[in-house]
Amino acid sequence: MILLPNTSFIILKKFILRVGGACLVLFAATTLTFITLQLAPGDPVTAILGGSANPTPETIKEIRTEYGLDKPLIVQYALHIWHVLSGHLGSSFSQHMPVKDVLWQQAPPTLKLMLSSLLLAWGFAILSVTLSAKKPLFDSAFSSLETFFAGLPQFWIGIILLWLFAYQLGLLPPAGTHGFSSLILPSLSLAIPLGGFLAQVMRESFKTTLDQPFVLTARARGLSDTAVRFRHVLRHALLPGVSLSTWAIGALVGNAVAVAVEFIFSRQGLGRQLFLAVSMHDMPLVTGIILFISVIYVIASFLADTLYVIIDPRIQEARA
């Protein structure tokens, strides 16, 4: 009998735990979605009928029977879970089209906005921390600026940017989803506060790393201060920012902030659709969007763990 090496068992165990954790997150998201929509005011029959006024009792009864809304809650919940497990998300009540088609249309604009906002935030955080940490005058000034940015409401930034660059200067389009230029203002609205948060959590780690012996060794070899900061110190300061980015990805995809920004700039996206679906009591669409956001969060968590090991291989050795 051939035994797998100990490292193989460790990898297999981690994989099983990761898959199990992902399944638990998806199950919890599905269950909470069902419970929340059951407690929310409103009747899904209204959404199914497209807001038709004064439907007859026979029509309401027929709709409830067709969609299983006349069954006990426990039966509805069991059917809800079964449909999710089988991959059958059904059709949106409010959009009158398959949920997968709605996701296919609305997910790309949201993912583009998420990625561009995250890249801008990281760019600001890295430059701010790397060029100013432990430098006289610059350190405190940039730290204060980061705190100021982190405290700004995204929707307020969006309104100011819209007024200045779209209506006053006419440099960028005020609304829309198509083209690179329509992505700039909403991305900045989300990236400015996030960049402030990232810089704040990275700054202390960066300053601590600057005092490590290997930094003195690098300087003794003749490396410039900029080279030491970017090539040696920055890597050790990235881990706190990577952890925060996992949360940020979930927040940028579908929370209230993303919804507000999508409404301000009249953008297509999952955040906007989620708000409308909840208000319309559209169970299939809400479930589909929540599951999509949960999958994005699970993938982000996996990528964060992978980046930990790439940035600092000692983490893998400590876990092993």
Task: For the structure shown, list the relevant keywords.
320 residues; mainly alpha; 14 helices; 0% strand
Helices and strands in order:
Layout: H1 6-39, H2 44-48, H3 57-66, H4 73-85, H5 99-132, H6 138-150, H7 154-168, H8 181-210, H9 213-220, H10 225-254, H11 256-264, H12 270-279, H13 283-311, H14 314-319
Helix pairs in contact: 1-4, 1-13, 5-6, 5-8, 5-10, 5-13, 6-8, 7-8, 7-11, 8-10, 10-11, 10-13, 11-12, 12-13
Task: Explain what this protein looks like in three dimensions.
By secondary structure, the protein is mostly helical. The chain is built from 14 helices and no strands. Helix 1 (6-39) runs antiparallel to helix 13 (283-311), helix 5 (99-132) runs antiparallel to helix 6 and helix 12 packs antiparallel against helix 13. The two termini are 24 Å apart. The model has no long low-confidence stretch (mean pLDDT 80).
